[in-house]
Write a structure and sequence with these properties.
Order of helices and strands: HHHHHEEEHHH
Structural class: mainly alpha
Bound molecules: manganese (III) ion
Low-confidence stretches: none
Distance between the termini: 29 Å
Helix content: 40-55%
Number of helices: 8
Oligomer: single chain
Radius of gyration: 16 Å
Strand order of the largest sheet: 2-1-3
Number of strands: 3
Shape: globular
Strand content: 5-15%
Length: about 200
């Protein structure tokens, strides 16, 4: 069973004005579709066929650059659409809110740390809030389509919130103003989905 491009859980214009419809159309319909197709092509006829994406990424150091780049691209964007919502924004609640306050000092200090990870990632990559192998929250950034599930990641664990800082994610609307895109992102974060992933990771 080949990997399938997941449908967006909302319309392409649902995240406006924070993320514009044209960016969503190209990002999902072209970029994510290409990662999915290229991942399938890279694993076809190999021992990776039939493995889950988590299994593939967990031993990606042994695989070709095509598997690493497209497997990461497939997984990262599948997560990204889910942790965004037109009804998003605000702050997390319950256990996740408490853990963020304990780990980072406050929600605002967490946003600063995450925003710094996003704006200082040189070139293309991602910023992550993750649960590490010891069960602790951490903020990291990764280049290209790498992520914390990969055995090449400096810190390994389960990503629960991710922000795509490739220029294809924001350039049409924000041009070179990555910090403005990062600031707008907070208005569409689906904290219910982040909390669901947090609980599952713990
Ligand atoms: Mn992207």
């Amino acid at each position: 069973m080949a990997f399938q491009l997941p449908s967006l859980p909302y319309s392409t214009n649902a995240l406006e004005p924070h993320i514009d419809a044209r960016t969503m159309e190209i990002h999902h319909g072209k970029h994510h579709a290409a990662y999915t197709n290229n991942l399938n092509a890279a694993i076809e006829g190999t021992a990776l066929e039939g493995k889950t994406i988590e299994e593939i990424l967990g031993q990606v150091s042994k695989q070709s650059p095509a598997v690493r780049n497209n497997g990461g691209g497939y997984y990262n964007h599948s997560l990204f659409w889910e942790i965004l919502s037109p009804n998003g924004g605000g702050e997390p609640s319950d256990a996740l809110a408490d853990d963020i306050a304990t780990r980072f000092g406050s929600f605002n200090e967490f946003k600063e740390a995450f925003g710094k990870a996003a704006t200082t990632q040189f070139g293309s990559g991602w910023a992550w809030l993750m649960v590490d192998a010891a069960g602790a929250l951490a903020v990291i950034n990764t280049p290209n389509q790498d992520n914390p599930l990969m055995d090449v990641s400096a810190l390994r664990g389960t990503p629960i919130l991710g922000l795509d800082v490739w220029e294809h994610a924001y350039y049409l609307n924000y041009q070179n103003r990555r910090p403005d895109y990062v600031a707008a992102f907070w208005n569409v974060v689906n904290w219910d989905e982040v909390a669901r992933r947090y609980t599952a990771a713990k």
